[in-house]
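Collaborator request log, item 7. Partner lab (contact: R.S.) asked for a structural prediction of Bicyclomycin resistance protein to inform their binding assays.
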Amino acid sequence: MKKWYSKLSLVMLTAVLMAGVLAACGSNSEKNSENSPSASGSPSKAPSGKKEKLVYYGFSEWVTDPNYAPVFEELKNKFESENPGFEVEFQSDPWGTWETKYKVMFASGNEPDVFIVNNPDFPTFANAGYLLDLDASLGADSFTDFFPGILDMYKWNGKNMALPYTTDARVLWYNKEIFKQAGLDPEKPPATWSELKEYALQISKATNGKVAGFGMDLGLQAFPAESLFTASNGSIIQVDGSGNITPTVNTAEFKDYLQLLTDMKPAYEADYSTLDHHKVGTLFAQQKVAMVIAGTWVTDQNEDLKNATFYGQALVPKFNESAPNGSFGGGFGIGVSAKSKHSKEAVKLAQMLTSVDFNARTMSDVPANNSSLAVSKFATDPAYKIFMDQIKFARQSQPKTLFYKEIDSAVYDSVSKVIINGLSIEDGIKDLENKMNKVISEK
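Returned to partner:
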């Protein structure tokens, strides 16, 4: 095991080239002063007759969308009325531009006060010192309403460094008609890994291989069927208080996970090694695959499913009956710049964005806390009932570190060797441990 350390982000080089271009994009450069107050200091006071600006940066698909722009304006007015002497400015760019631009804004010293942080970018932002430690300015009760697994996605060295804003989850989709053909109860979907395997193999046998029992999406080139593994007590790494990382895949949960995927291989679609989650979803819509673990994109991308009655939804099957529920979750957080000139007010703005009054009304995704979810459009739509039950248990299979993507890729490689190439489970685990240790030691 080895402790991770700071690394120079590639965006720093880009920032040198683009700093002049972005000079007007972020909040005022004076906020970078060494004398800027911390979140634990006294509240900032604007000079008489002058309003201090707080800049929020997000992507235009929400900030300027006619469905949400009026709500952002409502939020702005409420914040300014409660914080005299301050004004809020909303800045945004389209998704394709935003992904790059907000990284460069920080690297070049033109960061906004409050901003959307993309979940995959969180480790780099936290490690680079871009994010304010929210534990230093908020009490523990400020975090209790967020879903625990989603909240953990924004922790760095045990500290809360962003507030969860949106999230998602995967559920089990299954074909009731095919269940009937295979002699299975269409109102009793599999609840455990063993039942999932039994049902998948039975479906493939009963349909003479014309219908795949379970949709495998190895073509995604990410942790395959990760939602299954998160429906256990397992984690693929552990991180101690000093930042030391230890692989934890030589466990009963991970061995059984590999055994499950291997045993279900006869139930996969013939092209399972090249299918991604979108293609698997399409095959499910075409009734060529009986069960998939997927998100709402299945109906979003397949019009025929929107009014279909042949399918049902259920919670992701668990490791065993006593295991916790689980599913893979992602989403966006709301971060506060560590260099904000008005950090106290910036934290207040971040809290308002994730509050029950505004969270569900300022974006199209699922809110990441109980109160906002309860008043969202998803809570009253029957199509999302299972998602609402599942999403509270969403999490990721490893704590956030700088090596998240590399470790995820290592899992994909080793699992593929076991399923496709027939590598033994014991050797697959050794292969994965070696990959993980190499990633950690070389960074």
